[in-house]
Amino acid sequence: KLFRPFNVVVDFETGDLTPGKKITRYLSDIQHFFLDKEKVKAVLAKENPLVYEVIYAEVPEEAGHLAHCTTIIYPGKVGNEFFFTKGHLHEKLETAEIYFTLKGQGRLIMASPDGEECEVLEMFPGSASYIPPCWSHRSVNVGGEPLIFYCIFFADAGHDYATIDKTGFPKVVLERNGEVVVENNPNWKK
Ligand code: PA5
Ligand code: NI
After folding, report:
1. Cβ < 6 Å from ligand 1: which residues?
2. In contact, 148 and 102? CB cutoff 8 Å
3. What is the pLDDT of residues 72-103, one digit of tens each?
4. What residues does the ion ligand 2 have nearby, CB within 5 Å?
């Protein structure tokens, strides 16, 4: 059966994608990744902030299709560590992806499957970041406004979160003296 062409509409200001399916991630969903465990506890004792949302266009998860979505990472930190996405590898490891930034300032951390190679790209309005096959990826909001980007990937790629849950990423993005700095992650497990 022939799949019918369709539009979705992306709001560059809010990141809304309509019609779309929204996923929400709160601090409690990603708490284990943050460096400062005490700060995480202290924040969660008071509130459970919304860290990011992903809004997917409804496309079949089948070979040949291109999945696409927007991601909105809200501004915030735990201690001096900026809010970020969980991060993942693709289950079909050898599938690439593109992140096109619409609004805000970010960093895109990418690592090779063994974590020996790590690259961090800047994300800014107009940047089209290429995530090559096999690289794990996590994005970080380093600004004071939402970081909004539009993603395109193979619809049958799948998300492997379990690996990153175990290893984390080799690098972290922190604020030091008002500057955005990238440092080695002391908790990274190979
Ligand atoms: O497919 C992607 O890489 C993105 O759409 C991400 O899924 C999105 O940015 C949210 O990140 P994560 O899936 O790591 O929670
Ligand atoms: Ni991806």
Report:
1. 54, 69, 71, 85-88, 97, 137, 139, 151, 153, 159
2. yes
3. 999 999 999 999 999 999 999 999 999 999 99
4. 97
Closest CA to 52 of 127, 139, 178: 139
What structural domains and CATH numbers belong to the chain? Answer: 9-184 (2.60.120.10)
ipTM: 0.99
pLDDT of residue 189: 87
Q: Residues 26-75: pLDDT tens digits?
A: 999 999 999 999 999 999 999 999 999 999 999 999 999 999 999 999 99
What is the Cα–Cα distance from 83 to 62, expressed in whole angstroms? 31
First to last CA, the chain: 45
